[in-house]
Amino acid sequence: MKQQILIIGAGFGGIWTALSATRLLDIHGHNQVEVTVLAPQAELRIRPRFYEPEAHRLVAPIGELLDAVGVTFIKGAAETIDVQQKHVVYTDAAGARQIRPYDKLVLATGSGLALPDTQGVAQYAFDVDQIEQAIRLENHLKSLAELPPSRGRNTVVVAGGGFTGIETATEMPARLRAILGEHADMEVIIVDRGEKVGASLGAEISQSIAEASDELGVTWRLKSSVVAVDEQGVTLGDGQRIESKTVIWTTGVRASSLTAQIPGERDGLGRLHVDAHLQVIGQQDIFATGDVAYAATDDLGNHALMTCQHAIVLGRHAGNNVAAQILGVAPVAYSQPKYVTCLDLGGWGAVYTEGWDRQVKLTRQEGKSLKTQINTVWIYPPAADRDVAWAAADPLIPIA
């Protein structure tokens, strides 16, 4: 009977785990292992782009790719992980509960926005965390054109001035103009607790964010927080009121709740502590990758963030190492010392930085060209060609 490597999740971490695991098994001519991906859909949802319009297009089918490398795909949603019995209970496409045994498990179930219990957020706020919510926002924005002009109709409030909040807000002026007309009197407001525009991303990048915000007409309410949301707008902590038909929540991402079913230490975001080979500490047969892994990127105290930049490389290592454990060959230690960001700033362009201190290297259209390449080429899965896919899944590929 074949040994079973079960990967839960088909995001960036899950896909690259599957490609890398089958790659190493093929190199060693080992055909007595079945690699299976369990996920709700056979597609990679391009989550880093959900702040853009036409979110329904931001998916990449992966069925042919998985077939090309010999990966079994099961359409279903994992519910329970039984570590003692070594099986996963899931709901299949027909709604029936099924059990899938495993010899080795890789958790790659990603992260999600954990909405706070702030009054009205769950009922009235929008978000761009998952594709369904991004589509819901887009449909809502289009519906604004059917309403009579008003300050509330023409005002968008973005709660949170982090990476997602900034990209969402700076894209919004162009999206609103396309819907309400070029000459509509619009206002986009970021509500953020920081004392300075873009303060959470660092001093140097903050200057570009402030410049872009000024040019695009995006205003910031600093040292502020949203304490209530209703159908007509938001109330801030100081009692101020902003009339708005569109409130977008962007803060509070946490690792998948399935991490809680695996005995082990977790960080404040719910991510499982893993060793250098991405094996969950204290678990012989379980690995974690992508947004559910608290993994050291270097020897300086830095850890992987919840980004596709880290998830892709984490996946390459997790897949290689879970297969290596079965094969009895040496694993490859995860290391990703280079950290970069490329922040989309709408019509202003983008800002590209290098290093954990985010030193600015490219801005405006130079940055935008790089961001476009990242968003439309680099983060997409490889072609459904076995040799091409396996070459891309090598964990020893130099990270530029």
From TrEMBL:
What keywords does the record list, in alphabetical order? FAD, Flavoprotein, NAD, Oxidoreductase
Q: Which InterPro entries match?
A: FAD/NAD-bd_sf, FAD/NAD-binding_dom, NDH-2
Determine if Metal-binding is one of this entry's keywords: no
> Which PANTHER family does this entry report, sorted A to Z?
NADH DEHYDROGENASE (PTHR43706), NADH DEHYDROGENASE-LIKE PROTEIN RV1812C (PTHR43706:SF45)
Task: Give the family per the record.
Answer: Belongs to the NADH dehydrogenase family.
Which ranges carry the FAD/NAD(P)-binding domain? 4-312
What is the taxonomic lineage of the source species? Bacteria, Pseudomonadati, Pseudomonadota, Gammaproteobacteria, Pseudomonadales
Tell me the domain of life.
Bacteria
Q: Name one GO molecular function term.
A: oxidoreductase activity
**Assigned EC number:** 1.6.5.-
Q: What is this protein called?
A: NAD(P)/FAD-dependent oxidoreductase
